Automatic annotation (TrEMBL):
PROSITE patterns: PROKAR_LIPOPROTEIN. It comes from Spirosoma agri. Keywords: Cell outer membrane, Membrane, Signal. Belongs to the SusD family. GO terms for cellular component: cell outer membrane. Its main location: membrane. Residues 96-217 form the SusD-like N-terminal domain. This is RagB/SusD family nutrient uptake outer membrane protein.
Length: 547
């Protein structure tokens, strides 16, 4: 189904989401034949709103979204299991890329659903109390989806009207028009949404404010970004975790640091795995797959076998040497983000190696050869992983991003995780405030915001060493700090693009990704399936530079 060849009959919408419900947003599928009969009841309208949320799962926690948002930047490059090297290393990137095709399709379906809900809400029979809340949610979601679209593809198709039947033409709309609508929607969401919601996963006033702050920063509206960020920071519902590593515990998914999440059910059958009978429009892996993607190949090393604790290694992405070098020895975020040691767990082990002994050690540092020769375990140090120029030497073994690992999975080969995705957390809001202050010329105030996070990140006794001064605050420093704090959290490509640093920092810091990089690749190619489907091909053309 192409983006503009959409039908909005209730059967289609129900099938898209009936078995994509999560642990908080319970979906109700009333019997009915048309949208007009279903969405004019409060119960039916809840189906629409819950369905509008579900499309986020096509990006957050999914390989397609991670490839588009994190790889092809200065901090990640291809592991040996990478399947979208055209995104990560810009290797003949074209509109045939299936990750981009999937996200385009799902985002525009989500936009259409939001448009339909906003236009129908007055006839939904909602109470005077509930109506503005549901409109606020739909407005937030429309802004959220349009942000992904406009930043990824630029001035492409835009509409606020529900599509009924088949539309075979597309328009080219200026980026500014997208953002005008994003700001209008988010301001209404901030005004309408409550501070808390009875169901976990629904957008709140704080989430709308935090996302609006991100949007203001994106558009260079620094005073407005600062004011909105400060409003969130003043909200006592949110609180930084005292220990960075605690953020990633499966037992701590409801942390007060998380401002907005895409939540996944502990009952994996209630997530979004494709099922030909019940959920034909679902995802091929369903649930959260982040735990698979950043893991190095450990399970073929002496003394090691695959287990639940160490995860199922898809070996898709590995850190650039640049990312490894961003962390100082005083910064606990390195150990809180990366796994370096694998303990022997196999019945077959080298002589002298016991269960629980170190079997594999991957380090960003250099280990003297003489010391390595004395170890029973295998070592992969800086010069074994990377060449002298920073290109990758070994894309099988490297420090592994451990933020998203899930030792609660039922089996060692389980691809689905119930881990929620933190889309916006309080730490990002501190960094938004810092960047806004810097751009307003208030360097000490910017340093103060950054130092809040660096104090939290400091190892015991190292808080003073982790503080920065006003003189150190630059845009590049803030981008470095965002990498240390937010690596892997589906923000990096957007951060580099909005700051105008994407090309520069890839070329400076990610030599494997830079080989094929072209200036026009600050935008993604429009999916070829979309271009093939429309009739006004001379008006709606491929983004510049792509075939």
């Amino acid at each position: 189904m192409n983006a503009f060849l959409l039908k909005t009959g209730v059967l289609t919408l129900s099938l898209l989401t009936l078995f994509s419900c999560n642990d908080a947003l319970e979906e109700y599928n009333p019997s009915g034949l048309t949208a007009e009969t279903v969405y004019t009841t409060p119960e039916g309208f809840e189906t629409l709103v819950n369905a509008a949320y579900s499309y986020q799962r096509w990006w957050y926690g999914k390989e397609e979204g991670y490839n588009i948002a994190e790889t092809g930047t200065d901090i990640w490059t291809s592991g040996s299991g990478e399947v979208f090297r055209d995104l990560t290393q810009y290797l003949n990137l074209q509109g045939s890329n299936t990750a981009l095709t999937s996200e385009w399709r799902e985002f525009y379906a989500a936009i259409n659903l939001c448009n339909g809900g906003i236009s129908r809400i007055d006839k939904a029979g909602l109470s005077a109390t509930l109506r503005p809340i549901r409109e606020g949610e739909l407005r937030f979601l429309r802004a959220f989806y349009y942000w992904h679209i406009v930043e990824s593809w630029g001035g492409v198709h835009f509409t606020t009207q529900e599509t009924n039947g088949i539309i075979s033409t597309a328009n080219r709309t200026p980026v500014e028009t997208f953002y005008n609508q994003i700001f209008e929607d988010l301001k209404l969401a901030v005004a309408n949404l409550p501070t808390t919601q009875p169901q976990y996963g629904r957008v709140t006033k704080g989430a709308a404010q935090a996302f609006l702050a991100r949007m203001y920063l994106t558009r260079g509206m620094n005073k407005e970004a600062l004011e909105m960020a400060q409003a969130v920071l003043a909200n006592t519902n949110y609180k930084l975790e005292a220990n960075y590593a605690d953020l990633w515990k499966m037992s701590n998914l409801k942390t007060r640091e998380a401002i907005y999440v895409v939540d996944y059910s502990v009952n994996l059958a209630l997530n979004d795995l494709v099922n030909t009978t019940f959920n034909p429009y679902g995802h091929g892996r369903g649930s959260n797959n982040a735990h698979l993607l950043f893991l190095m190949k450990y399970d073929d090393r002496p003394g090691m076998t695959r287990d639940i604790l160490n995860g199922r290694p898809f070996n898709r992405y590995m850190p650039t040497r640049f990312l490894m070098d961003l962390y100082t020895d005083d910064d606990a975020r390195y150990e809180g983000s990366f796994q370096q040691v694998w303990l022997a767990n196999s019945t077959s082990r080298p002589a002298g190696m016991n269960l629980g002994d170190t079997a594999v050690y991957c380090t960003r540092k250099e280990i003297p050869d003489a010391f390595e020769a004395t170890r029973k375990y295998q070592t992969y140090d800086r010069s074994k992983i990377y060449n002298a120029n920073g290109t990758v030497k070994d894309n099988l073994r490297y420090p592994t991003l451990s933020k998203f690992m899930d030792p609660t999975r039922a089996s060692l080969n389980e691809a689905q995780s119930a881990r929620d995705v933190f889309v916006i957390r309080l730490a990002e809001v501190y960094l938004i405030a810092a960047e806004a202050q810097m751009k307003l010329g208030n360097l000490q105030a910017a340093a103060d915001y950054i130092n809040v996070l660096r104090t939290r990140a400091a190892k015991a006794g190292k808080a003073a060493a982790m503080q920065i001064t006003a003189a150190q605050v630059t845009l590049d420093y803030i981008l470095d700090e965002r990498a240390r704090e937010l690596a892997g959290e589906q923000l990096r490509w957007f951060d580099l693009k909005r700051t105008g640093k994407l090309l520069e920092r890839i070329r400076a810091n990610a030599p494997d990704n830079a080989v094929n990089l072209q200036d026009f690749q600050v935008l993604r190619p429009i999916p070829q399936t979309q271009l093939d489907a429309i009739s006004n091909k001379t008006e709606f053309t491929q983004n510049q530079g792509y075939q």
